[in-house]
Design goal:
- This protein is α/β, with parallel strands linked by helices and about 350 residues long.
- The chain has 14 helices and twelve strands.
- The protein folds into two domains: about 5-30 and about 270-355, Aspartate Aminotransferase, domain 1, CATH 3.90.1150.10; about 40-260, Aspartate Aminotransferase, domain 2 (3-Layer(aba) Sandwich), CATH 3.40.640.
- Helix content is about 40%, strand content about 15%.
- A seven-stranded mixed beta sheet has the order 2-8-7-6-5-3-4, sandwiched between helices. A five-stranded mixed beta sheet has the order 1-11-12-10-9, sandwiched between helices.
- Bound molecules: pyridoxal-5'-phosphate.
Length: about 350
């Protein structure tokens, strides 16, 4: 059975409801009318094959390794369904994005965690993963960039994780929905999918975070052919097929990724640096120091769970940050520069100071 995902319930209550949104983790939504695309034929059955082809081209992988999905969320479900049976075990990073755990539990798996530690820059340390892996572990799961710290999982690390997993006949699942942020592809092709690193790496992603296309729910699983076949079987058994309109609009918007990459770069320019300067000015605050992306994690050691104070700031001053509590980091908050322009972001940081002062 699927338990409630507390973080998403909380996010739906607050995100987008405040004037100073320093919590939302994707670039602002783009409207269809802004894309300048011809309206697709939503009765064309060829759209299914076209979407698969467009996803394969976008990720520079063979079509046979692609399974379209409704956002990264459903891609994750399909990836899990392709490797997990009840009683299996999954190794997930901590702190972590809660749905990574809930989706696995819902499929009857047991979730165990390995730490990504502040003093190690929130790197994934393969030795720690190797120490935690067991005979029933079917997959190791990481996000890159890491939600909530923004730390990248380097390719060499994924390679090491893949070798650790391979020795157990297991997989590595990389949620790479934030991965393109270090070099958003203005030619529309993301060439660095973790899928290409090793045979047993499965990548999941979507157009949600980098391109402002979250409501189109264009997501995918990329995996070796046996994974693609099993993910396809899970799809057929649980929803049959996706709406034809999803496929038609999906392949159309994939054609707009290049200009949307340029848009995202312009929207984000200079704001990470504002965040960094602000955190450096705070006494007693630690910072995850992401190199790119649109958020980082601020930790206030010794302050206990910040959830109620974060909610109070949202109500009293209209400034919201992501509560670390939902990621297993209660003394922290995720600070995002995705939504506000630079001036509004700076003002939001000023309004946040009472939270930091305690
Ligand atoms: C790591 C991670 N994966 C997946 C998602 C969900 O992505 P989508 O909206 O494409 O389903 C999120 C959203 O916050 C996320 O942070």
């Amino acid at each position: 059975m699927f338990g409630p995902t507390r973080y998403i319930a909380w996010a739906m209550q607050f995100y987008g409801q405040v004037p100073y949104d320093l919590a939302t983790s994707g670039v602002p939504l783009v409207k269809w009318s802004e894309l300048g695309l011809p309206v697709p034929d939503i009765d064309d059955f060829g759209a299914y094959a076209a979407l698969r082809g467009a996803i394969a081209r976008h990720n520079d992988v063979p079509k046979a390794e692609v399974v379209p999905a409704l956002g990264t969320s459903q891609a994750l479900f399909l990836a899990y369904a392709s490797v997990l049976s009840p009683g299996d075990e999954l190794l997930v990073e901590s702190p972590g994005y809660e749905p990574l755990t809930r989706a696995a539990e819902g499929l009857g798996a047991t979730v165990r965690t390995f730490e990504r530690r502040a003093e190690e820059g929130y790197r994934v340390v393969p030795e720690r993963v190797a120490a935690a892996i067991g005979p029933r572990t079917r997959a190791i799961v990481v996000t890159s960039l890491h939600n909530p710290t923004g730390a990248r999982v380097e390719d060499d690390t994924v390679r090491e994780l893949a070798a650790i997993a391979e020795a157990r006949g297991a997989y590595v699942i990389v949620d790479e929905v934030y991965a393109p942020f270090d070099d958003l592809p203005e030619d529309g092709v993301f060439r660095r999918s973790a899928r290409k690193i090793a045979r047993n790496v499965i990548a999941v992603s979507s157009l949600t975070k980098c391109y402002g296309l979250g409501m189109y729910r264009v997501g995918w699983v990329l995996g070796a052919e046996e994974i693609a076949e099993r993910a396809e079987a899970a799809a057929l058994a649980t929803f049959g097929h996706l709406p034809l309109a999803h496929a038609s609009y999906g392949s159309a918007v994939l054609g707009a990724v290049g200009p949307l990459a340029a848009r995202a770069k312009a929207l984000l320019a200079g704001k990470r640096e504002i965040a960094e300067r602000w955190v450096a000015s705070l006494p007693n605050a630690q910072w995850s120091a992401p190199r790119d992306g649109l958020f980082g994690l601020v930790t206030l050691p010794g302050r206990g769970d910040l959830l109620r104070s974060i909610e109070a700031r949202a109500r009293e001053s209209g400034v919201l940050v992501g509560a670390g509590s939902f990621f297993g980091a209660p003394e922290s908050f995720r600070l995002s520069w995705a939504s506000c322009d630079a001036a509004r972001f700076a003002e939001g940081l000023r309004l946040l100071e009472p939270l930091v002062a305690g």
